[in-house]
Design brief:
The complex is a heterodimer of chains A (274) and B (299). Chain A is 85% helix and 0% strand. Chain A contains 14 helices and no strands. By secondary structure, chain A is mainly α. In chain B, 34% of the residues lie in helices and 27% in strands. Chain B contains 11 helices and 13 strands. The chains are: A mainly alpha (274), B alpha/beta (299). Chain A binds chain B through residues 3-4, 7-8, 10-11, 14-15, 18-19, 85-87, 89-96, 273-274, and chain B through 49, 52, 54-55, 72, 75-76, 78-80, 82-88, 90-91, 95, 99-100, 102-105, 143.
């Protein structure tokens, strides 16, 4: 089983390298991370935290948008496109299970994402540390940012496979993925915001809202990074929402999304007739 | 009873309320080459996908060397060439084939020899994106040869290929069958499967309307054999009158007869002596048979 997963993973990773996906994603990450680091470096003195802390706060906000986007970009085509080209039927005629095919692709795509995230955030971290200094706490925050970004990307890879399995063609898979990104990253928060305004500080805002927010993997990622470091929370100005919940809520939500996403992807992939 | 590599029994498939396949039964023995003919949409590809376990059958049973389709045992025993397969264009032929070898648990070092066998050794390390249609099809054939399958399902293996490539492809298929593989070839290239298969199965609208050797199919269809006689000089009218044929042009006369009346006709042609310079006998073509069986309404 491991041999077959690795065979598929090796092939998929080679494809990601050859069609310059890894290079493009890494460049995007490096550019955005560096740009945000410099743009966000102004208020250092006001808040009294080191420059890397500010940079991590800015990059957290960036990653909420970029990690799901990159993950969906690499995953949306990989079931629907192969089914369309006929190569899925061929591979499934071999003694390999659908779970193995899915895991192989996942391992390869996760490795590609991890490379882009580590290099992008790492480069920004090094530049900031050299320019403005970095404490041990802010270094840990950076490390946490890299690891949770990879985790967030992993969840959206699995969501991408599920959407790819649901759609009959790669065109409709692209549409579905764009929609999913919009819902998870933008519309969900807007909806919650609207509900808070209507609720006017009642039970919903006090009790239900923080949990609903954590249930979304993108928000769980944000809360995890902000809740774990006071300096980052201060810099992000979001300490209210983070402190309303126990510290384990956001990490648990993001971690639960992994098996949940895999089950979702496996079930939808099982219904694909190649 | 001989061993059966593939047994399809009463298989039906519904899509919604529409029957794509109904009551299809077919047996293929080891080393046998069977052509599966039919129009687009007759159900050939669907039948293959059911045998591969990619689609569930609504009714009936399939056994691949005794195993149910989709089981590891059945998938190990089967090789498949999809219609117009597209491999990933940024992989090389060698890498693509190595992946399939790993998936089927075959030693990766057979890849070189297989690429050599299908004539791709020069292109082995080039990306598949640079391959011609014929080369991609040969790569597809190379993966069929992996691991010596018991059953090979080839969906339109020669569509879009030039005559030389077709010939090579059939040589490989013959080799497979000679090694004991049961080969099922879906095709609409009638003339080429004619000489390359032992048995012909014809599908029409999801049903199997014929399944027999070419000779017996033509006998059952009762299609006429055509004898074309070339007459000497101005003898064409005389020849046509005596033999009861129709004049095609100034020198040629066509006669139609049942296959058991052939010898009698030939004797009469010979008896005409110098009035005839040449004659050709053409038995009913597969095209005629195909037309006959695929227009026949099944009882």
């Amino acid at each position: 089983m491991i041999a077959r997963i690795l065979a598929i993973a090796g092939t998929e990773f080679r494809i990601a390298l050859r069609n310059r996906w890894v290079l493009t994603a890494t460049l995007i990450m490096v550019l955005f991370a560096l740009a945000l680091t410099f743009a966000g470096s102004a208020p250092t003195g006001v808040l009294g935290v080191d420059m890397l802390t500010i940079a991590v706060a800015s990059m957290t906000t960036l990653s909420v948008y970029l990690a799901p986007l990159l993950a969906l970009m690499i995953s949306f085509d990989c079931i629907a496109g192969e089914a369309e080209r006929g190569s899925l039927a061929l591979i499934l005629s071999y003694p390999v299970s659908r779970a193995e095919v899915l895991l192989g692709k996942f391992v390869a795509h996760l490795a590609a994402l991890a490379i882009a995230m580590s290099i992008g955030f790492g480069a920004a971290g090094i530049v900031t540390a050299l320019l403005g200094g970095a404490g041990s706490e802010s270094l840990i925050a950076l490390l946490r940012l890299v690891l949770t970004s990879i985790l967030l990307g992993a969840v959206f890879l699995l969501i991408g496979y599920a959407l790819s399995s649901l759609s009959g063609s790669s065109t409709s898979a692209a549409g579905l993925s764009a929609g999913a990104w919009l819902v998870f990253v933008v519309l969900y928060d807007l909806g919650l915001l609207g509900a808070i305004v209507l609720d006017n500080g009642g039970v919903f805002t006090q009790r239900i809202f923080p949990w609903l927010m954590t249930a979304n993997p993108a928000d769980a990622f944000r809360l995890w990074n902000i809740g774990a470091a006071d300096g980052v929370a201060m810099a992000a100005g979001l300490s209210g929402a983070a402190s309303a919940l126990p510290g384990w809520a956001a990490p648990v939500s993001l971690l639960i999304w992994l098996p949940l996403g895999f089950i979702l992807a496996r079930l939808t992939f099982g219904r694909v007739e190649p | 009873m001989r061993d059966e590599a593939l047994r399809i029994e009463g298989v039906g498939k519904l899509r919604g309320t529409q029957a794509v396949l109904s009551d299809v039964s077919l047996v293929v023995h080891p080393g046998e080459r069977v052509a599966l003919l039919g129009h687009n949409g007759a159900g050939k590809s669907t039948l293959m996908k059911i045998v591969l376990g990619l689609l569930p059958a609504t009714s009936g049973t399939v056994a691949v060397t005794g195993a149910a389709p989709g089981t590891v045992e059945a998938r190990r025993a089967t090789a498949y060439l999809p219609e117009a397969v597209a491999f990933h264009k940024s992989l090389t032929g060698r890498e693509q084939l190595a992946l399939f070898a790993r998936l089927s648990g075959v030693a990766v070092n057979v890849v070189g020899a297989l690429l050599d066998r299908v004539g791709l050794s020069d292109a082995a390390d080039r990306r598949i994106g640079t391959y011609s249609k014929g080369m991609r099809q040969r790569l597809g054939m190379a993966q069929v040869l992996l691991g010596r399958p018991m059953v090979a399902l080839l969906d339109e293996p020669t569509s879009g290929l030039d005559p030389a490539s077709r010939h090579e492809l059939y040589a490989i298929i013959d080799e497979l069958a000679a090694g004991g593989t049961a080969v099922l070839i879906a095709s609409h290239a009638l003339t080429e499967v004619e000489a390359r298969t032992e048995r012909i199965a014809i599908m029409k609208a999801g049903r199997l309307v014929a399944d027999d050797t070419l000779a017996r199919l033509s006998e059952r269809a009762g299609l006429p054999t055509r004898i074309r006689v070339t007459a000497t000089g101005d003898q064409a009218d005389h020849v046509a009158e005596t033999l009861g044929g129709t004049r095609v042009n100034g020198r040629t006369v066509d006669l139609l007869c049942q296959s058991n009346g052939k010898i009698e006709r030939v004797k009469r042609i010979i008896a005409l002596g110098d009035a005839v310079t040449d004659f050709d006998i053409s038995p009913p073509r597969l095209e005629d048979l195909y037309r006959h069986y695929s227009s026949e309404t099944p009882q």
